[in-house]
Amino acid sequence: MKRALVLLNQAIRWQDNLLLAEQAGFDQLIAVLILDPAEYLNSEYGIKRASALRLQSQLRRLLDWQQQWQQQELVLHLRIGDTSLCLQQLAQHYQADALIAAEPTAPEQYQQLQNCGLSLKLHDLNSLLQHQLRPDLATLPKSFSAFRRQREPKLLVQQPKFYGISSQFYGEPEQALDQSSKDFISQHHNPNAALLNEAAALERLEQFIWQQRAVTHYKQSRDALDGQWNSSLWSFYLANGCLSACYAWQQVLDFEQQQLANESTYWIRFELLWREYFRWQMRQHGRAWFSKNAFRPPLNFSAPHADRRFELWCKGQTGLPFVDANMRMLVQTGWMSNRGRQNVASYLIFELQQDWRLGAAFFEQHLLDYDCASNWCNWAYIAGVGNSGARQFNQIKQALTHDPDGDFVRRWLPEKTAAGALVHWPEAKVIVQDFWRPYLQQLKHKA
């Protein structure tokens, strides 16, 4: 009897999931989900890796999917513990000698799979460019623009496929959850946590593209700081493998062919391509992305040192209202708009003179859509390390552009009562930057 473990961590979905299909060469498949506490409860640079909000959301998603398997009278083994050790224990129990899994992007997760001692077979399930479309890492373009030019205008994307669940799946119901996992769940599970599962992903996709037709104004609305239909919010689901990137791409193409193609429908595919680029960049350079200058030599993995300015930034107490409002939104909700992320990152790096890796680690702690490649590569991109030039933002100009009446700031900073755009005026403790001054003059004229 030849058995293999199937690790579903990066593929928590029924659609377009090759891991659920028949696997040649095996008689039985053992379905597994693992939550490694080290990825949530440990600290990096003195920053806890996950907030309670992010841990609870992830735990609820895993429990929900295990329940879906039970409803189909199938066994999905859920383990809370060291990934390599849990895989070894299950392999020993079921006498399995192989592991089939979705290919990760995070170097840490690659290492965990390699350390389990099983014959390893990886399928890239969450990239647009899979199988024969897979880029050659040795010749991967150094910039996104070059990567995009290489792929456009005739960009081929792997077609999503719909597999029936294999009859090879097997498991002993009493092994579905062990006692230590039950203990962890009883301590950390919150039944009211956000359930960002596949059903929610498909509903959001349907609403955003077909019902609200929000995809038709995406390029104009994507820079909004909040609002139900300004952003796709697909990142919640892509980050956890609950939504197939290929399926999302195909749905946009279908809309373009059946309804309307414009600059906005193109732009959402453009941003999916950005996500794709960072995935391959992370795979190309691996752990080097966590060096101070990313993969630029010499590599420097020494821990960054935070000061009081970083602490105030984390709390949304810098004294710059536009930055503080975005930071408080992040901590309270686990979400921040792309425009907000760029501005708070720029402020931390260039005005507060803090190591970009501190900001990336804080975002990892709080973002419910945390994705290793997207998060760390985007922070490096703003900082101007790795293969990009620095991108410094003018927060006063950005505030006047994206929150002209100050409504967003007053929503998240209720202590700010100034009328209109005057709410963006920096507090006295803020060092005023010269490039802000023309826009501060605009604020004065509004007084």
Overview of this protein structure:
The protein is an alpha/beta fold and 447 residues long. The protein has 3 domains: 1-125, 3-Layer(aba) Sandwich (Rossmann fold); 198-286, Serine Threonine Protein Phosphatase 5, Tetratricopeptide repeat (Alpha Horseshoe); 308-446, DNA Cyclobutane Dipyrimidine Photolyase, subunit A, domain 3. The chain has 19 helices and 7 strands. Strand 6 (98-102), helix 4 and strand 7 (119-123) form a beta-alpha-beta unit. The N and C termini lie far apart (79 Å).
Please render the helix and strand layout as text:
Elements (H helix, E strand, L loop, with lengths): L2 E5 L20 E8 L2 H4 L1 E2 L2 E2 L3 H20 L4 E5 L2 H12 L3 E5 L4 H8 L4 E5 L20 H8 L27 H10 L9 H14 L6 H4 L13 H4 L6 H14 L4 H23 L22 H8 L5 H13 L4 H14 L4 H11 L5 H12 L11 H8 L4 H6 L24 H10 L1
Parallel strand pairs: 1-2, 1-6, 2-5, 6-7
Antiparallel strand pairs: 3-4
